[in-house]
Write a structure and sequence with these properties.
Elements (H helix, E strand, L loop, with lengths): L4 H4 L7 H6 L2 E2 L7 E2 L4 H10 L9 H22 L6 H13 L3 E5 L2 E5 L6 H16 L7 E3 L8 E3 L12 H22 L2
Antiparallel strand pairs: 1-2, 3-4, 5-6
InterPro entries: ABATE (IPR010852), ABATE_dom_sf (IPR023286), Znf_CGNR (IPR021005)
Protein name: CGNR zinc finger domain-containing protein
Organism: Catenulispora yoronensis
């Protein structure tokens, strides 16, 4: 595989499940872009996420996209303080029970262990389990959606004052700052 995952995907979200939902760029825009355009792209993302699998089929891709969208809908519902749809929660719970991955402690880091013959369903089980821990955990109230209207990405606000507005300051926050500066510059150019 010759593509570099860092050039194809946003990998900066600290929550694995939310990083997976970010495989759709510009969700809030009129032209969202699905970066999981084929099974090879899913395999590349899984590898970059540290949950590589032996093979990915078109059926696997369909299951992954369905899970990704359920994760996004659940996350946005929780961020808006609404109850997630029952069908999405059912899909999440089912995906978590299908996988055969094991959690491991390596040094002081929790990680997932997959066998060399791990399937995509095993990897999806990891993503679902990660989401369950966030959606049902103590930090549930810190789930937010990015205030960049074109992005709308999910993130976990771990800031001290719980006042973070952007999924990433390096991307969406920086765009907002540049827009404000450009608008202020235009107002300054108009004169009194």
């Amino acid at each position: 595989m010759t593509e570099d995952a860092r050039r194809v995907f946003r990998l900066d979200n600290e929550v694995l499940a939310f990083r997976f939902t970010a495989t759709v760029s510009d969700r809030g825009s009129t032209a969202p872009r699905d970066r999981l355009s084929d099974p090879g792209r899913l395999k590349l993302w899984l590898q970059a996420a540290g949950i590589a699998v032996a093979d990915v089929s078109a059926t696997d891709l369909g299951e992954a996209v369905a899970l990704r969208e359920a994760l996004f809908r659940i996350g946005t519902a929780i961020a808006a303080q609404r109850t997630p749809a029952t069908r999405d929660v059912r899909a999440l719970n089912t995906a978590a029970t299908v996988g055969q991955a094991r959690a491991e402690l390596v040094g002081d880091t929790a990680t997932w262990r997959l066998t060399p013959t791990a399937t995509t369903r095993d990897a999806l089980g990891i993503l679902a389990t990660d989401a369950i821990h966030v959606f049902g955990g103590a930090e549930r109230t810190r789930i937010k959606t990015c205030e960049n209207p074109d992005c709308a990405g999910l993130f976990l606000d771990t800031s001290h004052g719980a006042n973070r507005r952007w999924c990433s300051m390096n991307t969406c926050g920086n765009k907002a700052k540049k827009s404000r500066l450009a608008a202020a510059g235009k107002r300054g150019d108009e004169g009194p």
